[in-house]
Amino acid sequence: MAKQPRPAAEAAPAQLRRVLGLPALVFFGLVYMVPLTIFTTYGIVTEITGGRTAGAYLVTLLAMLFTATSYSFMVKRFPVAGSAYSYTNLAFGPNVGFLAGWSLLLDYLFIPMINYLLIGLFLNIAFPAIPAWTIVLASIALVTVLNVVGIHSVAKASNLIVGAQIVFIGVFVALSYQSLAGQPVDLLSPLLGDGSQPGFGHLMAGAAVLCLSFLGFDAVSTLAEETRDARRDVPRAIILTTLGAGLLFTLLAYISQLVLPGSTFANADAAANEVMFKAGGQFLANFFTAAFVAGSLGSALASQAAVSRILYTMGRDKVLPQRTFGQLSPRFGTPVFAIVLVSAFSLLALVIDLATLASLISFGALVAFSAVNLAVVRTHLINERTHRNLKGLACYGVVPLVGLGLTLWLWTSLSALTLVIGLCWFALGLAYLAVLTSGFRRPMRLVDFSEAA
């Protein structure tokens, strides 16, 4: 007898589709981090560190590797979407999990916006006849459609964009080598600087700015429920993304400093253009603009995919309204409402300035990094006592605590404005949590992570 289809009322709910493998995850992380993102803050960090941007990237890479390892531990134990929100929820309970997720939203909501703003600025310079606001609106519309259609479109677009940026990097390295040929070169200057900003404090200040370049490994963890073998591939992708991007950033900063020594520029915000003109003339400058805009579009694509899944996870858990946030499109299997909401929020790119946006991103990232490092200790050494041996203490005690210490150290270098805005956002989340729990008189709903076992 043929199997009868289930009635519509009993149809299985839409679920995120497990279609991603290790290469797609690594490319997703790389495009999220944007290989050319180094040139966004290159001039600023070079001035802060006195020509030691490459050294600052090494400091940041060291700090991020410890935290990335903590993320890999947590996603291997709990292969679920939601990133820091899910991990702190499972380790410390729903109240702390909510506050971690809320802080993470400050970071994720503004990353697509800053990319739209950069796209509008750069293309408006290249094509002055086209108003920046029309470019921003067109970019938001394109990214929204691609994300609604599904993660396949995001992965395919990510591969193309990373590929284009890799080609540019190859051309940049080749032309830089050609421009340096036959000239005296101080190979240590990118690490030692020009002496204008001596001391470790200035190096740390630059490293604190650069930590935002490494947010891609965190974004990879949000795709755990769309990965075929999440426990194996997502931890590997997190480490590979962090290490690969960090070394690439360091190399590009090192070469840029060799091409254009010193730490003073006609315009620090446009220092990348000075480097490109010195290395390859107008051709390389134009190529850079095209590649940078493509990277910003790819970062917007990946970051919107990540934040929409965090909102979906919080809605599914009834932390946010489930009927709107916690639903997937039956046709596309994507959180359409969350995607459209992020796009609507990104319209602020039409009125906000770049400096303000940059200051709003740091706080949430560092809160999330700190929370995940602590979640590793709580999960593996306190809640689960099977790891209380020498190896377990080293992996789940020393590694996350070092990561926490380095993250807090970077925190001390944030600007006062960033701390004030971040604390106000955190206070708003605390107030919302008080409403959800009737003034903390009743426990928040416990989350059922079906994939967490």
Write the layout of secondary structure elements.
Layout: H1 22-33, H2 42-49, H3 53-77, H4 84-92, H5 94-126, H6 132-149, H7 151-180, H8 189-192, H9 200-210, H10 216-221, H11 230-259, H12 271-316, H13 322-325, H14 336-345, H15 354-383, H16 390-411, H17 416-436
Protein name: Amino acid permease
InterPro entries: AA-permease/SLC12A_dom (IPR004841), APC_superfamily (IPR050367)
Membrane topology: Multi-pass membrane protein
Tell me what the structure shows.
This protein has helices at 22-33, 42-49, 53-77, 84-92, 94-126, 132-149, 151-180, 189-192, 200-210, 216-221, 230-259, 271-316, 322-325, 336-345, 354-383, 390-411, 416-436. Helices cover 70% and strands 0% of the residues. Helix 1 (22-33) packs across helix 12 (271-316), helix 4 (84-92) runs parallel beside helix 15 and helix 5 packs antiparallel against helix 12. It is built from 17 helices and no strands. With 453 residues, it is mostly helical. It is globular, with a radius of gyration of 22 Å. The chain crosses the membrane at residues 20-42, 54-75, 96-119, 125-148, 160-180, 200-224, 236-255, 283-312, 332-352, 358-381, 393-411, 417-436. Keywords: Membrane, Transmembrane, Transmembrane helix. One of its GO terms (biological process) is transmembrane transport. It is a multi-pass membrane protein. It is found in: Membrane.
